Amino acid sequence: MMMDYILDELLATEIPRDKICFEVTETAAVTSLTDAMEVIAELKERGFKFALHDFGTGLSSYAYLKKMPVDYLKIDGASIKGIAEYFENETIQQKLIDIGVDHMQGFHIEKPMPLDNLLTVGSLVSGASG
Known about the structure:
By secondary structure, this protein is of the alpha/beta class. It is built from 6 helices and 3 strands.
């Protein structure tokens, strides 16, 4: 079973579980709501985090939100178009802060890079913090 494999691999690492956040798209979660809720609940019990990705793209987004035990919402760019579509600069960052967004992802923070580069940057950052 895929869940057993995921758990075996994740539980074998030394990475703190609360530092791992799984993303599930709203469409995938809603398509199989019961299954998605079971998987999320099982992994959250073990300390992992969850984000609902592309929130706002579905027709019933807010109705499903109360049922989904996720830690974060990743708001789809179409939902905030005209305010902060791609989060590429400080002005957009400030607008997001002003409307209550407390976690952000975008080119203003870092442009995409190969995983090898990210691991090097990550080890430098984690080494510097303690």
